[in-house]
Amino acid sequence: MLGKKEPDGIVLDALFSMKIGAKMLKHKRNGKIYPRQFYLYNSEDVISYHNTKKLFKKPTSYFIKEIDEIRDGLRSNTFQRFLKRKTIRQKDETCAFTIMYDNHQKELHLTAPDQRIRDLWITGLKHLIERYSDSGQRNFISSDSSSNADDKMLSDESMRMNIDELKTFLKHAQHQHDITSDRAAKMIEQYEMNPELRNQHLLDIDGFRNLMSSEEFDLMKPLCAHRPYQDMTKPLTHYNINTSHNTYLFQSQVIGASNAEAYSRVLLKGGRAVELDCYDGPDGKPIVKHAWTLVSPCLFETIIHIIKLNCWKASEYPVILNIENHCSIPQQKEMARVLNAVLGEHLLTEALPTTNPSVLPSPEALKKKVLIRSRKISRPTKSTQTLQQEDEDDSPTNPLSEVMHPDFAQLLIYLQNVPFRGLEYARANYSCCQTSSLGESKFDDEVEKDPLGFIKQTQYRIIRTYPGGIRQDSSSHEHLNPRTYSSSIIYI
């Protein structure tokens, strides 16, 4: 099998059970429920189901390489909505699970006949997902594979290596002159995903990609390739932060759907800063949406639950929630309540002990902490309103949000957003805990006007740059230039 760890007896039992198949209920987002016979292909790369009423219809397939996450119980937005509508019962939680796939943009909601079958499928699927992830298969899957009569994805026969051919390649291309037939056979056993080809000691194009992307053939040292190897004890301003712009959008900035699962996608890929544009919602519940556009809103609380679920799966380093606050005082209080209730001890609510208050804490000191970044205004004076109007981002569209509820204000510990000013003004008025946002056009103007002054500001406080509003598809601006000038948060 792929990877260095062979599946144990529990996993083998799960895979065997999945290949036999199980009759489960498929829940569509419109609330309709369909019984389907789900099963795993013998090649262990696809799950599918039979449609009992359409015998000649091609089976629907879900490729393991496209699955992002398995959630047990009723922990998806759709299942929660069914629960509120009473189209599903709380006691069904032990039999329910959700398959998130296609970069968290799609969901498959299932209930098994009993908890035992549900748990077998979850165990098997998690093993297969991990196997693909470990091998690099999810990033290097072949796009030109052809289907055989059974709809199983197989590579072209001319693109397979036997043991002798693999030995020849390793000797002449990789200069491993001491390679033996036994070692080549073990490589095929380790990296070939198709069980039938593996039993024949054949390596197809996908298995070859797995081999070449493995640690053994990696140009980088394994410890450097898969985890931070730099010194992470310097102030936060010394690092570039993996950042998402308009995180809640799956499509354009003007129309289309927003989806709370977009936050899962970003965090699981290693993102450490996400964006939430918050407005007053119905029933006193804040929502996240994109200004006055046709993009559908998401509940703030739903997004925070998803963030908590996925915060530390890819990294233990801090997560920054950039909250563009357009909420009224009561709903600001509700935002603070949700953040405290859901994130608990992970939410940073007070400054860390330090011997040097003039610099920000390090990523190491902030491990497993969530930091809130937003504007901090006590009352709408004429001077603060003028400053806000000159700040390209985070300017309030709701006048009530110009005053902050103290519960929300006290969460702004290290990242209080202020308008960008020149070096002399910043040195006299801004501390390390105050950050500024610049759109790409204003960034270009500032670095052209005073490049050295801009760099000096980034040495002690965080500067955030983001794409201009004309990019309706949320495409990235040229981020090499901001990186050159040491901007820490570059939205791409």
Structural notes for this entry:
This protein is an alpha/beta fold and 492 residues long. It has three domains: 9-139, PH-domain like (Roll), CATH 2.30.29; 157-217, Recoverin, domain 1 (Orthogonal Bundle); 236-490, Phosphatidylinositol (PI) phosphodiesterase (TIM Barrel). Helix content is 33%, strand content 17%. It contains 18 helices and 18 strands. It has helices at 9-20, 77-85, 115-135, 137-140, 163-172, 181-191, 195-199, 205-212, 222-225, 262-268, 300-310, 329-343, 382-390, 406-409, 423-429, 440-449, 451-458, 480-484, and strands at residues 22-27, 33-40, 46-50, 60-63, 67-72, 96-101, 106-111, 146-147, 153-154, 273-279, 287-288, 298-299, 319-325, 370-375, 415-417, 434-439, 463-466, 489-490. It is flat. The relative contact order is 0.08.
**How is the main sheet built?**
9 strands, mixed
Query: How confident is the prediction overall: mean pLDDT?
Result: 81
CATH topology of the largest domain: TIM Barrel
What is the total number of structural domains? Answer: 3
Would you identify the regions where 5 or more consecutive residues have pLDDT less than 50? Answer: 136-156, 379-392, 394-401
Q: Please tally the β strands and state the result.
A: 18
- Total of helices: 18
- SS-based class: alpha/beta
Multimeric state: single chain
Strand content: 15-25%
CATH class of the largest domain: Alpha Beta
Helix content: 25-40%
Q: Which CATH architecture of the largest domain would you pick?
A: Alpha-Beta Barrel
For the CA atoms, what is the radius of gyration? 26 Å
> Quick one: overall form?
flat
Query: Roughly how many Å apart are the termini?
Result: 37 Å
GO molecular function: phosphatidylinositol-4,5-bisphosphate phospholipase C activity
Main location: cytoplasm
Keywords: Cytoplasm, Hydrolase, Lipid degradation, Lipid metabolism, Transducer
Protein name: Phosphoinositide phospholipase C
